[in-house]
Amino acid sequence: MPISYDRTVHFADTDAAGVVFFANYLAICHEAYEESLSASGIDLKAFFADHGIVIPIVKCEADYRRPLSCGDKLRVTVQPALLAEDSYEIRFEITRLGTSAKSAARVRTEHVCIDSGTRARKALPGPLSAWVRAG
Amino acid sequence: MPISYDRTVHFADTDAAGVVFFANYLAICHEAYEESLSASGIDLKAFFADHGIVIPIVKCEADYRRPLSCGDKLRVTVQPALLAEDSYEIRFEITRLGTSAKSAARVRTEHVCIDSGTRARKALPGPLSAWVRAG
Amino acid sequence: MPISYDRTVHFADTDAAGVVFFANYLAICHEAYEESLSASGIDLKAFFADHGIVIPIVKCEADYRRPLSCGDKLRVTVQPALLAEDSYEIRFEITRLGTSAKSAARVRTEHVCIDSGTRARKALPGPLSAWVRAG
Amino acid sequence: MPISYDRTVHFADTDAAGVVFFANYLAICHEAYEESLSASGIDLKAFFADHGIVIPIVKCEADYRRPLSCGDKLRVTVQPALLAEDSYEIRFEITRLGTSAKSAARVRTEHVCIDSGTRARKALPGPLSAWVRAG
Fold first, then answer.
1. Distance CA C61, CA A60 (A)
2. pLDDT (mean) for D81-102
3. Which of B110, B123, C44, C91 could join C79 in a cystine, given CB atoms 3.0 to 4.6 angstroms apart?
4. Residue A53 pLDDT more than 70?
5. Distance (Å, rounded) from C-alpha C73 to C-alpha D48?
6. Residue C87: CA atoms inside 13 Å, Cβ hemisphere, count?
7. Do D11 and A15 touch (CB under 8 A)?
8. Which residues contact A38 (CB under 8 A, 6 or more apart)?
9. Which residues in chain C touch residue A16, judged by CB atoms under 8 angstroms apart?
10. Mean predicted confidence (pLDDT) in D53-82
11. Cα D79–D81–D83 angle (5° rounding)?
């Protein structure tokens, strides 16, 4: 079951072309990821700090379909999937809500769990693995 | 009656000191301003675009009282006041919610309405003036 | 001949994991794109404003290879290529400079020239086409 | 002797009003602060991480005088001054360069050195104190 996150476009997300700056679509998807982790009981402050294990994003891809303006109402769906015992992907879809909802972007990120000292791959911690499997 | 806006601290708000970057407190306050304008019926996309009249921020001040971490729950209050027929200030307070709510920052911004071509001061448009007076 | 852009990692680029936030690699590549356009004589303010023709990014991809910290010295290479008369891609490589320079990320963006009113595809303007061909 | 830092306005600094977002003036000043610290031999990665001592910004103020557009060339001067043995202020001036250089903003930040565990004030570390005194 994908999780969804609602978000209004802020003025700070936009650029001088009048619409959301391309890199900010990724930041918006990351917020949806954070909300979803938090909803599953994971403590965000501890999760994103470096306590020996870190889970960096190693790849991302985005397809931009529609421009987004300040005040637009968005819904972001978050669909994680295991790739291996030490990695997962997340597929995000950003929909612009309104009288006719429209897909505004699709984003995919790939995450690998590593030891922050040695950079060796490590199995996902249990609560994170449970979050991915429940996605 | 001050308006309030609830917001979770996002990972993208933080910096390598582990807490919200000082300039991002101002961006968070601006979001609260946008929500408040929008709640009063002002169309944000039109408001922030340049249609001959613009209302730039000419001053801001911030007192930082507490660090904020990813996942922290915030409440931002927005208290506008007229300074003249062509300008207003907004006082924001950011509170970190939790078992004991704490003031995290106070921010003040000053806004002046001008003609974007001539840079001459102009009286506030009616809906904006009404928003300020209702604050 | 690829164009290169040197940049120091700023504190505001980083997040609470102590390294550059994944979306900010894309913003850094966009700066390199801007510098390269500017060096070829294109006026950035006019280029990025909406004057009837806009050239949005329709896809991007990034491979992240190394974390980047505040103060790191980067070199970004910019390699554009035509995809059609109305579109081009840019391949960026971010290298972390130092005693042994290391590739930190590869990024690819895809750009399409459109009429901002009708969203119909348009041939690239001459100076932009010349920039792509010279890349 | 004030230190100066040159910077081009990036597209990501701007917002849908076509000019630099007000909070980003502060981020630009912080870059100038980083460059100045780095030029005095201070290691930025270690300086901004939390190693028991942190030096948060406790106040900031900005006067905005001119809008800034993508591609504008800026010069930022950095003038630190001791306030006490555990605190200092920095005065920044952002000038838009060109045929007639114009002041675009004045910014002031106030910094206090504290123990990150107890939040008790601490005297500035020697290299930082030397940087402030040389400013």
1. 6
2. 96
3. C91
4. yes
5. 16
6. 13
7. yes
8. A44, B8, B71
9. 45, 48-49
10. 97
11. 150
The pLDDT tens digits of the residues spanning B11-20 come to 999 999 999 9
CA-nearest residue of chain A to D17? A16
In this complex, do A45 and C15 lie within 8 Å of one another by their Cβ atoms?
A: no
Which residue, among A81, A99, A101, has the nearest Cα to A91 in the 3D structure?
A81
**What pLDDT is recorded for position C50?**
79
pTM of this prediction? 0.97
Active site residue B6: no
Report yes or no: A64 and C58 within 8 Å, Cβ to Cβ. Answer: yes
Of C17, C30, C67, the CB nearest to A49: C17
The span from the CA of D24 to the CA of D4, in Å, is 18
- pLDDT > 70: what percent of chain A? 99
CA angle C43–C48–C51, rounded 5-degree value: 95
Tokens of C86: 């109305």
| Both tokens assigned to D21 | 């977002």
Smallest Cβ distance to C26: which of A18, A23, A63?
A: A23
Angstrom CA distances, A50 to A44, C13, D131, stand at: 12, 17, 30
Closest Cα in chain D, distance from residue C5 (Å): 12
d(CA C87, CA C121): 9
Verify whether the Cβ–Cβ distance B34 to A69 is below 8 Å: no
CA–CA gap between residue B10 and residue B29 (Å, rounded): 14
Confidence of residue C99 (pLDDT cuts 50, 70, 90): confident
Joined tokens for residue A8: 């209004």
